[in-house]
Write a structure and sequence with these properties.
With 165 residues, the protein is an alpha+beta fold. The chain contains five helices and six strands, in the order βαβαβββαβαα. Strands 2-5-4-3-1-6 form a six-stranded mixed β-sheet, sandwiched between helices. The longest helix is centred in the last third of the chain and has 12 residues. The chain is globular. The termini are far apart. The C terminus is likely disordered. The structure holds a DNA duplex (12 and 12 nucleotides).
Length: 165
DNA sequence: GCCAACGTTGGC
DNA sequence: GCCAACGTTGGC
């Protein structure tokens, strides 16, 4: 199976792209996912897969960077920690319910690609992120979507392009 | 801060 | 197995 692409959401007040950049070895474990579909997507991840790092609950919400998968799915220890906010009393260590992967910083985008800007792209109209009511925090991105998104990075910010000199 | 959309829980 | 109630996500 070839390289695959993903998008992962994080609230920047909780863990931002800069936090990832400044983390030890620029790597973090993706703890706290408590949604089966998102977990299943993490199980599908392979080392070397590339990830769009998305800031949710931000102003504006935006894709801000790229990371790569450096460790495939393994049990998320926070599910067994009674003091952790991600504690899940229904999950037993002999059969862990929740898993996580490790991702490593690759780079920040040269500029954030905001949700409103992404919505303007007809090529991206089927993107999971842009569907009404979509809340998945871990989701697949097609190769076409990936390439189109990164091509937007090269173009000028729409709001400033009008004052070209 | 509001609230629509969604996922989960639990009574029946 | 249905579905009402509840909790959460996340854009606005």
């Amino acid at each position: 199976m070839g390289l695959r692409y993903w998008l992962m959401k994080s609230e920047p007040t909780t863990f931002s792209i800069d936090d990832l950049c400044n983390a030890p070895r620029q790597t973090t474990c993706w703890e706290g996912v408590r949604n089966y579909q998102a977990r299943n997507y993490m199980r599908d991840m392979a080392i070397g897969d590339l990830v769009l790092f998305y800031h949710s609950n931000a102003d504006p919400p935006a894709i801000v960077g790229i990371a790569e998968v450096v460790k495939t799915a393994y049990p998320d220890p926070t599910q067994f920690d009674k003091k952790n906010k991600y504690y899940d009393p229904a999950s037993h260590p002999s059969n862990p319910r929740w898993e996580m992967v490790d991702i490593k910083f690759v780079r920040k985008l040269s500029r954030p690609l905001s949700l409103p800007e992404l919505r303007k792209e007809r090529t991206l109209k089927n993107m999971l992120l842009l569907q009404k009511g979509s809340r998945l925090s871990v989701q697949p991105v097609s190769r076409e979507e990936w390439e189109h998104i990164l091509s937007l990075e090269q173009s000028a910010r729409p709001s400033t392009s009008k004052k070209r000199q």
